[in-house]
Specification:
The protein contains nine helices and seven strands, in the order H-E-E-E-H-E-H-E-H-E-E-H-H-H-H-H. The chain has helices at about 5-10, 60-70, 85-100, 120-140, 230-250, 260-280, 285-300, 305-310, 315-335; strands at about 35, 40, 45-50, 70-75, 110-115, 150-155, 175-180.
Length: about 350
Amino acid sequence: MPPAATNRQRRRDGICSPTSWPTSSSRPAGERSDSTSAGSFDGERFSASPLRPTDLRENASPLLASALGSTTIDRFPTGSAKIPKEGEDALRYAARQILYFIRTYPLSTVHIAGHTDRVGKDEKNLTLGQDRADAVKAFLEGEGVPAGLLSTESKGESEPVVPTKNEQPEPRNRRVNVFFRVQKSNISFGIDYTLKPLERPTFEKPTVTFPPKLPPGYDPNQRRIPYRDPAETKIWDRIKENQRIIDEIDRKYPRKDKSLSEAAIDVLMDEIFKPILKELPISDDLRKKAEGGIRKGLETGSEKACEGVIDATGAGSTEKEALKAACKAALKQKPAETGKK
């Protein structure tokens, strides 16, 4: 066997260094040599093959890919958007993971949220949070992450990791969260409950002529008019009478149009709050009171009123958190009431 073929065979058997083994000419006659993928045994000694390092990213699930590409940078200097030295290292690592996984998940996006502690005014902290998010975005772009994948927002001091009092510094709250949202295709099974202005439906009142008009060119001398069942005539007369009653009621009691906020609250109650309350082990009276209290809190814009009603239902912690989060999101995105009469 040629030397090159011998080396290939030994590498295939897991032998790392073919030159460290005795050749067939130097091995005593009749000596046995066994080789496996774990190593080789020549009758006297066993040599293990070196372990091949594995890359966890090769078969990573979307959840693992999202975790590897996401990170949190905290301990920003007070009132500053300068990225800490330790944060730069974490961002470089996250950028490498993002660049690796977007080849497998090409529709993925990166969302960057800036946060502050409670030192300073709300408006100033909202601006500072945006400056920190923009600084992280610029850093990721410098590491090669496409700008089209990046989006930013500022949370200001609204979502602290460590709750503190006003004007109390907390370095863990001065942070930026980088979320790598993995998506392989453009098909989404989620439901978007974002409040949007509802378009007012338009209804056209049908016009009915009695008796029906004959088609153009119809000659009654050539064809007899078909016989009309008396029962059918009674049905038409009943339809006319019902329409007359409806028109009279509309004139007497004009309908009040709902505002955009009222229509949006109806959608929220039907799609989110009522299904959750229906699953709770509470009485019908308490369920109706809870629905009324939540609706009143949404109409008045009072988050505390909503939370008080939710706490009174006796729901579990998971249901409470879901209801409170829905209330908070609804109040943040509640459109301005227009068209109220």
